[in-house]
Design goal:
Blueprint: H1 3-7, H2 12-16, H3 25-28, E1 34-36, E2 41-44, H4 45-62, H5 64-70, H6 79-89, H7 94-97, E3 99-101, E4 104-106, H8 110-122, H9 130-152, H10 157-167, H11 171-182, H12 187-190, H13 192-211
Antiparallel strand pairs: 1-2, 3-4
Helix pairs in contact: 4-6, 4-11, 6-9, 8-9, 9-11, 11-13
C-alpha cells in the first residue's frame, strides 16, 4: 500500500471515520476510548486525533517559512508527510494505558507505548524506511515532554533557549506538534490562563526559531 501518497488528500473527517481505506484498525479502535480530564471533555481519542490533524494543517498553511522547512526530506519522505503520521499515531496506545480514577481519565506513559505501537504499524509499509520511522517515533515518544516542559517554565527568551537545548534539532517539530495538540482543546475552558500561556509560547517559539 502506498501510504504516503494516500496521506496527500486525507482530512480530519477521514480520521474520524477511522481511515478505513488504510487498513489500520488500530486507528478506528480509538473511537471507543473516552477521555475526561482538564484537557478533554468526554471526547474520544479518535475525535482528539482528528482535531489535532486539522489544527496541524491550519497552522502549517499560515506559515510560509514553516511550509518550506517541512518540505525537507528526512529519509524517503518529507517532514510534512511524516508529521501527519506523527499526529495520526501520537496517542495510538491510549486505550492500553487508560486509568479511570475519581471520574477522570489518565494515560501515564502513553507516549512511549504509542511509539512502540506506531513502530509496529509503520513496519507494514515499505515506503517509510528506518530513518523516517526513527524521526516519527522520537516525536511521538517525546510529545508529552513538551507539555511537561511548560509545567515548570515561564514564557520568555530564557525558556526559548531551554526549549531548544532540550529538543535540539527537533525543536520546531516539537513546538508544532505541541501547538496542534493543545489548540482548541478543553483546556481553553477548564484553565483559560494556562491555555493562553501555552498557545502563546508555542506560537512565539516557532517564530523565534525562524529568526535566530
Amino acid at each position: 500500500m502506498d501510504l504516503i501518497n494516500r496521506l496527500l488528500d486525507i482530512t480530519s473527517s477521514d480520521i474520524l471515520n477511522g481511515l478505513p481505506s488504510f487498513d489500520i484498525p488500530e486507528v478506528e479502535s480509538l473511537k471507543n476510548n473516552i477521555e475526561l480530564n482538564g484537557w478533554h471533555n468526554r471526547e474520544t481519542t479518535l475525535q482528539h486525533t482528528a482535531i489535532v490533524f486539522e489544527n496541524f494543517l491550519k497552522i502549517v498553511s499560515k506559515e510560509t517559512n514553516l511550509r518550506n522547512y517541512l518540505k525537507v526530506k528526512v529519509g524517503l519522505c518529507s517532514k510534512y508527510d511524516l508529521l501527519k503520521l506523527v499526529v495520526i499515531f501520537h496517542d495510538i496506545a491510549k486505550p492500553e494505558v487508560v486509568v479511570l480514577k475519581n471520574a477522570e481519565t489518565s494515560f501515564l506513559g502513553h507516549e512511549e507505548f504509542s511509539a512502540t505501537k506506531a513502530n509496529a504499524i509503520l513496519c507494514r509499509f515499505s515506503e517509510v524506511n528506518s530513518i523516517d520511522r526513527q524521526y516519527i517515533l522520537y516525536i511521538i515518544k517525546n510529545h508529552g515532554n513538551v507539555h511537561k516542559f511548560l509545567d515548570t517554565k515561564r514564557k520568555g527568551e530564557k525558556s526559548f533557549h531551554q526549549f531548544i537545548k532540550q529538543f535540539q534539532d527537533f525543536s520546531i517539530e516539537m513546538a508544532l506538534i505541541g501547538y496542534a495538540d493543545i489548540l482548541r482543546s478543553y483546556l481553553e475552558v477548564s484553565n483559560n490562563i494556562d491555555y493562553r500561556y501555552r498557545i502563546a509560547f508555542f506560537e512565539d517559539v516557532i517564530i523565534f526559531l525562524f529568526i535566530i
